[in-house]
Structures are given as C-alpha cells and as structure tokens.
Amino acid sequence: MISLLLDTSNQALSVAVNRNGKMAAEINTNYRKTHSETLVDNIQKVLEIADIKKSSIDRIIVAKGPGSYTGVRIGITVAKMLGKQLDIPVYSVSSLFVLAVSNHIRGNAVPLIDARRGYVYGAMYNIQEDDYTEVIAPQYIEFSTLSAEIDEAVYLLNSEEKITIDIDEYTHVTPRISETERYEKALKLEDADQLTPDYLRISEAERNWQDNQ
Known about the structure:
Blueprint: E1 2-7, E2 13-19, E3 22-29, H1 35-50, E4 59-63, H2 69-86, E5 90-93, H3 95-101, E6 107-114, E7 119-127, E8 132-142, H4 143-148, E9 154-157, E10 171-172, E11 188-190, H5 204-211
Helix pairs in contact: 1-2
C-alpha cells in the first residue's frame, strides 16, 4: 500500500509518501510561502526520494481543515485532482489530529490553531501507540472556554505561527502528516466530487453577507 499524504492547512507544509503505513519519504517546511507555489514540486520530490512512480500510489490522504481558508483549499484541490487523475481513493483527516500525533505525545493531547480574537480551533485526543480516543471533537471555540474543560493535557501549538491567545505553557509542534496513517480510524474515505474543506466556521465575508441579508 503506497499512500501520498498532504497537509497545507496552515503556514507549515507537510508532504509524505508512506509504504505500508511507514514513512518512505517526507518533506516538512515551516516558513511563509504560498503552498500553491511549492506543493506540486514537493510531491514530485518525495516520490523521487522514495523511488516511487506516481502511477504506483494507491491512495491519497489529505488534511481537510480547520486552518487557513486558502491553505486548506489548496491541499483539497490537489488531492481531488490526483485522485481523479489516478483513479484512486481519497481519504481525509482532521488538521488538528495531524498536530496531535506529530510529536509522539502519549496521553491527552490538545492541538490548537490560533483563530484570533481569543478563539482557537481545538480538540482533545487521548493518544496511545496505535490507537486514540477523541475526548473533545474539533471545534471553533473561545480558548478560555476550552481550557476550562481540561484538567490535565499537553497543549500543542506551532510556535512559528502567530499566537494571540493567552497561554502560558504549550509544546511546539510542526505537523507531520506521515504519522497519521497508523491511526486508520482517523481517516475518512471521501467521495472526491463531494470533498470540501472543514473550516469549522464561516468566513468573515460570508458572515458579513449573512448579517446584511
């Protein structure tokens, strides 16, 4: 089983090729650059590093959000395009789950993506070696409200992103989507024609439009 895995949800970029659930090659970057400029090139690079032909890919796994509206959309679009081109299944995974498993944390992990104005995209998972339990489902929530629900856990944030919430202790994490495949139940088989980003909230433009109706 050859899997191509893509995460363009935020500033960081994670592209990997797994063979039978184990990482064969991966590229993880953590700097500000438009993913539309680099994603396709990095897909080609990981395939070359792993000595795998594009036609040998059996499935695609893509992070479907939450995160940057533009970033998530780029990954989804490329995943759908390749899925149709190669006639292979496309699976999705929460971008928060990608963060939760990227640092090999065991126990309660709370991945966070700063959503500004005191809000976050957040969830809580109890992570074990090859299994997990979703304790708090991914949601858009005020950080103070989320943290009040949690007694003991490791908060995970990418410190290279802008952090506006009031948080004292957290562990830095750079997303590595190659790590998600060991948790098969976190992967959702999608209809490529119907696959859409999971933003968890409407955009400001959509909200303004609704307010004016």
